Amino acid sequence: MERPTLTLIAGSTQTKKILYDQLHQLAGDYIVVRAFAIDESLPHQLEDHVILYSSEATKTEAATISNISGKESIVGKRTIRHDYIDRLLTIPHGERVLMVNDDDPSTVDVIESLYQLGINHVTFLPFKRGQMFYDNIHVAVSPGETHLCPSYIPQIIDIGVRPFDMATIIKVMDYFQLDDSVSSKISERYIRSMIVLHRKILGAEKEALQTTEHYQNVVNTVDDGILAINKEREITLFNHRLEALFQMPAKDVIGRDLSYVVDTDLQDFIINGLEENKFVSMNGVDVVAFRQSIPEEHTTVVTFKSVNQAFEIEKTAQREQHKKGFAAKYDFEDILGEHPRLLERVRIAKKLAIAEHPVLINGETGVGKELFAHAMHRNSLRKNGPFIAINCSALTESLLESELFGYEEGTFTGAQRGGKKGLFELADNGTIFLDEIGDISPTVQAHLLRVLQEKEIRRIGGRKITPINVRVIAATNKNLEQKITEGTFRSDLFYRLNVLQLAIPPLRERLSDIQSLTNYFVTKSGTWMKVDPQVIEAFMAHHWPGNIRELKSMIDYALVVAGGSTITLDDLPHHRLEPKSEKQTSLPVSTIDAKDHFVILQMMKNRNDEGKTASRDFLSKKSATLSHPLSPQQIRLRLNDLESKGYVVKGRGRAGTQITLEGEQYLTQLKAHQKSR
Fold first, then answer.
1. How many CA atoms lie within 13 A of 185 on its CB side?
2. How many whole angstroms separate alpha carbon 588 and alpha carbon 597?
3. Could you give the maximum distance between any two Cα atoms of the chain, in Å?
4. Distance CA 612, CA 401 (A)
5. Please, what is the angle between helix 340-354 and helix 369-378, to 10°?
């Protein structure tokens, strides 16, 4: 028996294909389907007895193109593809969604179909051609016409071309007068796809339930109390730890307003979020509440951590910092030497260690400034906290800033994901040692000054202010007072750093320690070599610009090249022991001036070594007890002369005067000059 023919006319090629496939799958055994699309062109004459249109708009447009008068026609009703409905179920509840289709009636028809199918957890707004902007729209849905969706909408969901509904299929079968058995088979085929979808939805619901139960079990095992609320202030999460803390079961709390659980003060903290954490006492338990937001979900999450637990975490963090090397390695026992000047510095350093003020250590390169910093931390009240050392001259300005103060994610190319803590944050409740502080740039100086003044830091590229409790020990081999005069170092930063001061004597001023230091370095190397006395004599005659570090490197060299059991002069790097062509400080022509300079500088140095400054009044009174007394007028003139040469720095008012490193070198030459006479 010849199969009857049905002509399908759709608006677009895509719609034609989807509808043709549907008809062929359901009734291809019983009818022949010819399909046309308006955007592909239609025949001028259509001789079939019945024409099925995809929509009323398609029928109207087709009549203007082809001669179809007098033909039987059916305008199909369309529904939503069942296998795409799950895409709509992922849209958050209450969202405003733009529905986009190629004509206004079809757009409204799609919205009505979705509401009839129970997709009513969102509000659909119809797309209108010519309207470019839709306020507060983040999701657009379209049945195969996504190219019409506004480009600024971030999420676009394609639910596919809508197929014919069952009523249209039955109308076609009735027209061709197919017997009941055929209609039944076609209906079963149509319903089968819905059953497959139903199974899919049931599976998705089961999986979602299992996922929800999994996450609930996870948050219930956490020691912290966890509370979450939505934008309506309804409680959406309340874990077991919080049940014990508030003494309320979760089943009585979920879905309730926040005010049902917490008081007004805590509500204000959770809702307004002016602070990131808050101390709270809950039923006799002291906790700290931490607030975080999830903007994309309009959710606020608050965790409640017990204070005792926070202390334990802090102790664990400190142990981890010690493992990472954030700990002082040396103590005062590791500072070798018996020279009175060195022992005096150790005595002063032990007193400075107990204080909480910043310390500025002055000394030439290689004298052991970092050794003193380690020892001072280990004998301070912060000995259980971290100790972090950084050489400020070893890094560029930008790298030093990011290392000291940290940065937020995305601050610069290559920035670590999640940002990075700076050394000041890592050194909280401990000590940070800033070596070569005189080499930092003006920008870093300004940033460091703020940290010292406000006791808080702000990461580079960030807005959050973080309070810190860090003691600063700084060191330099530069004359910072001279750098202040030159305008390369901030005076306000200097006075912040120079609250407590410690000057480490160079090796040439403690030559009696060379023998013990040499023996120590040789023994530490693990060898049993002896040291020829002539080597010690050569060491005693050397100027030691590199101090103890230079001494150690010479001994390391000698240990490598020595051929026997004794280190001799031949084993030393002679080019390093030869006299240096250094610029010598010129002595005053006048013998009287030289003698006056010697007296003043020696008194001043003795005073400075005690950690005090020397005023003109003090110097005048002190000189009166010596064999070479000086009047106040003589002292004033000599101090002006010494200051002009950079040997002293005069403070204002009662601040007194201090000898500089250059002044100490000049004093050493004056001593040698007097001995040679």
1. 10
2. 9
3. 143
4. 34
5. 40
